[in-house]
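**User:** I keep going back and forth on a fold encoding question. It is easy to fool oneself when nobody else works the same problem. Could you pick a protein and write out its sequence and tokenised fold? Could you put it straight underneath, so I can go through it closely?

**Assistant:**
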Amino acid sequence: MKLYYHPISTTSRTIMLFAAESGIPLEMQVVDLFTGEHVQAPYAGLNPNKLVPTLEDGDFVLTESSAILKYLADTIGSPAYPKDLKQRARVNERMDWTSTQLNQDLVYALVYPQIFDTHKRRSDEAQAATLQRGQERAQAWLKVLDENVLGPGHNFLCGDSITIADYHAAAYVALAEVIGSDLSDYPNVKHWLGRMKALKSWPQVYQVIDGYAASLKGKAMVAV
């Protein structure tokens, strides 16, 4: 199986970490986002969304990081994606919530407009309004994650065992630290992220984004 990815890509890191921790052998093919390789042939023909990641398994091509995580987990029969109907439904619920709620407001409305020029709004007024709304909504979602999803005594998003929902969510939540948030207002989230960071493959997978974050130190940011 071949994974088309870039280490600066948040959605790529979810798969990189799970594959590394699970011992899944993948042929890794970097798609250079900074030169626009993702919007040009031949990659644009492989993934018409012109985004990473993309998984290629023979003649089967799969896009969307959450779908790729599920596919890889099922390929090896990983306990991180339980077979039990209700347990699996809970994992799917957490992943959907991360993608449709937390990701939209924390990542696309708050983090990316501050760290990537391609996401910055066209005027200072529009930028400020976007960040204000993103901050307010991201704080609300982090509170839900802290108090209702994790809560006291829950080590991971679906209980006491790590699942692909944790790999999926950790990449997004970790971006809060890039904009200067220490997550101290969300102690359960902070502790959970610490457990994810303790995974042996985390430093290697997150090396590039950590380096990029270091280059932004000193820049004024709207945090959560």
